[in-house]
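hiii so my PI (J.) wants the whole complex modelled not just the main chain, which honestly fair. so below is everything: two entries, each one labled with what it is. i double checked the lines twice but i was tired so who knows lol
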Amino acid sequence: MVTHIAHKHLVHSAWKKLGDKLCSTTVLMGFCSLSNLAMADRHGEDDSPYFAGWKAYDLNPYDLLYNPSGIIQMGLAENQVGTDLLEEWLEKHSDIPTWKGTLTSFKQTALYQDYHGLAKFRKALANFMAEVRGRRVKIDPDMIVLTAGATAGNEILTFCIADPEEALLVPTPYYPGFDRDLRWRTGVEIIPVKCYSYNDFEITFPALEKAYQEGLNKKQSIKAILITNPSNPLGLTISPQTLTMILDYAAEKSIHVISDEVYAGTVFSPDPFTSVLEIVQSSNKYNPETVHVVYSLSKDLGLPGFRIGAIYSSNPKIVTASRRMSSFSLISSQTQVLLKCLLSDSAFIAEYLATVKERLKRRNEEFKRGLKEMGIDSLQGNAGLFSWVNLRSLLVFDNLDGEMKLWRVILEEIGLNVSPGCSFHCEEPGWFRVCYGNMSEDEMNVALGRIKSFMSGGRAQEEVLLSTSKTDISAAQEEVLSTDLSVAAAVVAATAAAACTALGLDASDLQPEPLAH
Amino acid sequence: MLSKKVRLDAHGEDSSYFLGWKEYEKNAYDDVQNPTGIIQMGLAENQLSFDLLEAWLASNQDAARLTKNGESVFRELALFQDYHGLPEFKNVLVDFMAEIRRNKVSFDPRKLVLMAGATSANETLMFCIAEPGDAFLLPTPYYPGFDRDLKWRTGVELVPIHCSSSNGFKVTKFALEEAYQQAQKLSLNVKGVLITNPSNPLGTTMSHDELEVLITFAIAKKIHIISDEIYSGTVFDHPSFISIMKALLDRKLEETEVWNRVHVVYSLSKDLGVPGFRVGMIYSNNETLVSAATKMSSFGLISSQTQYLLSKLLSDKKFTKNYMKENRKRLKARREMLVTALRDAGIECLKSNAGLFCWVDMRNLLSSNTFDAEVELWKKILREAGLNVSPGASCHCSEPGWFRICFANMSEETLKVSMQRMKAFVEKNTQQCRRGGGRVTHQESGCNSRRRSLSNWVLNLCSYDREPYR
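here's the output for the full assembly
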């Protein structure tokens, strides 16, 4: 049976090949004179529902007073639970941003563009990073490379570690932005390390090995494993045992480990957060020059707009190269000065971290309990700004199609923008990431209320789910009746070939790609 | 184990341009604490008008405090990471850019893409326009940082358009064609020309004729033009600045193909003197490019805190008008100081009307007409005169003996000290030449005054619409 998605893939694949071909030809009347990077869609933003949901929200955003029936944004992993504390701090120290309360003048700040970054800021950041890791890790400020956000940090590290067409192993489910950040301009590939719900999506040795072998079979050179710890979208820390297993695996294969720890400060469980750095520093089994951390203040401090990221590495070559590359992504010196003062206020920082953890814990528990009352399960998380929710039982079709339909129902019928598991490359359909850290508790409760009324709608709910599915099913069925897989492919290929001939291009390599699994 | 980009070290930072910096950092001049230290004249910074900025900040505390009419806007800004940029910032930026161009050109904020510095903007344009192995043509001499910014991670090649002192280093049709053919000989696919206008290191604006020749060339070859206009606000003397956009409008090229292949890079680092704030941008009429560049800007967004501060500053039209006028006046005065002092020391400069530096002719101080002699001279200037200047070779100049000397990154007193040192240096070295003091023969000596006047005579013969020397 040809599903709608399969047909769409074939068409898309053939046209994409044509498009790529057109773009790599420079003769064409000047209309397509940009690079492949600019013309193709490796940034992933056009297809992914992660971005589509954002757009829908932008058109009809919830507001308690002005638009109480609007869409509630639960697809944005922002940390707003501690913003009030930061606002208070700023009010108390209102001279600092005007350069009055600092030792650095406006002139010194404005002129400072050294890619080493302001020494005092780096020191304060190193101290903060150590604090977040319970001071069980030593962070040397001279090994910190500042970057405009973890987005830049991840790309720069990838540029330093891998050449185009080489690969990174990345456990699924993973942050959708990686498809752009790690691959787009670097030309590096991602090989997914597939994780499953039976063991709460823990990364296993067989999963790593399977992914590695897949890479070998495709003749790809694997350079690193990139983990996110705590995980986005799972909202769960990786256990010390699993981290050790990953480090052992990487050492055996002589590959790097990159640990994206942007959520380190959001761990609210009694068990402390274990960074890879802790394991590496407390043992002499591992070569510290092959283990690197990417960090940012976007999640822990809720400051994504300020673009404060960092690479931490003990590899002098990587530090030197990534520091030079950071010229393309420097942090505004104005922001460095402000943050240096904020992070140096250790009493405030200690209070802030503790309060944020407590509030996130409460949110997480309330949300999980609220869902449980409706018969909805979610992963037992201990970190992050979201829940990883299991809606598999609500799927009409236990597949990607079914998940997308459910996502649309949640968006259009319940009015919540959540993120479907497929955008995180989850292997099993039906999981959704639902964010609750970017809103007030009241708004979270409104969201829970909407889910509750939908779920207790009983027959009405079922009908909505079924009727939405039916429309698409009949359309797909029609396509099956009138089109055969190979016929569909042949029609597209013929059209594309005709276009090529008209333009004087070679059409021999325009056969559509076979459908993956 | 690491990528080729790291192993092959193609970032370009081992050139003398950066080595001079390092020498300076070890022994930096300070009028009180280290009066014999090295004076930094290799840094194109604009330090002349901070008092104006500071005064504005003092009377407009909201902007830095992240408040609006006393109310905190911290929350919105802290969360604002939209790669389309803060709308109020883009609106005032396009007004500012238009003002710099005497409102002869207007800009649409929807065609503006914000990036963390012109460094990021230039690299992004490469990624959007060229494939690895494609080439861009650049008039020499050019900013040394381009070797890193345009080539390192993109894999793009640069082919020089050789400009010569015989016509004041202007871009000619011949030079363009020659560069294009050279690229073809090297089997490189040329995607465009990148000009810096006003020029770094020349400190001159491109003439109407040059722009015409360039546009005609780009149309014929179906290639892009990138115009790096980061010094556009520093034009302090005639002729007035002509932006590439104005040149296109004058030729009524709005509805043609080339309209979509011309892109402008801008930044506030030079005009406002705020390089630390990382404010750069791309302006283009090409929708596809704007869309791709906007997404790429995720890798180098401008801090929302900084966008807010500068949006407030630039929205004060009375301030910007006064700032631009005063800033230009001060730059002009500094340039006069440097040129006069150098002339007094027997050294001529290329006649300039913009920028934060002069392009200085020290050919008559070379021991031989070679780049080795230029490096030798540069090192002598560094060690004997204690001045870090930038040798022409680091800017890919095809003729040895030219140096870029910056005048806006220091106080007036420091500039005077540097010129005293320069005068003493020239005198000492000229005397040595005359004595034949253990160096190359009198005939080859670059400090032969007869040779100098010969150069002037030749130059006068070749002068075009302006004289290259004052």
